[in-house]
Specification:
mainly alpha, Methane Monooxygenase Hydroxylase, Chain G, domain 1
């Protein structure tokens, strides 16, 4: 029988930043960044609308339709970001011989397809 040790949570001020997480960044054009952020803001508005519907006891079917629309918007955002990621980050890493990027892409696709 193994002994499991629970990790103590550190206060936010004491948390150490993982160096591997900070090394990966994507430089996007201001136009691309603005386009993606605008999509996310529209999705945020849809979610706020759904919350309002719930608070006002809207009809279940109406809420489900709005939820499906928000889900479709998230999927569209993911497709756009994924296409950009493959064209830029993945292509660059493959050219540089970083084969682990393929494994990372496969894992990401598996998560997106759940």
């Amino acid at each position: 029988m193994g002994v499991f040790m629970r990790k103590e949570r550190q206060p936010m001020s004491e948390k150490k930043v993982c160096p591997c997480c900070c090394e990966k960044h994507t430089a996007r054009s201001e136009e691309e960044k603005k386009k993606l952020i605008n999509r996310l803001k529209r999705i945020e508005g849809q979610i706020r609308g759904i919350i309002g519907m719930m608070e006002n006891d809207a009809y279940c079917n109406d809420i489900l339709i709005q939820s499906a629309a928000a889900n479709a918007a998230v999927n569209a955002f993911n497709k756009e970001l994924l296409a950009s990621h493959i064209r830029t980050c993945v292509a660059r890493d493959i050219r540089e011989g970083k084969d682990e990027t393929i494994d990372e892409l496969v894992a990401t696709l598996q998560k997106l397809m759940k």
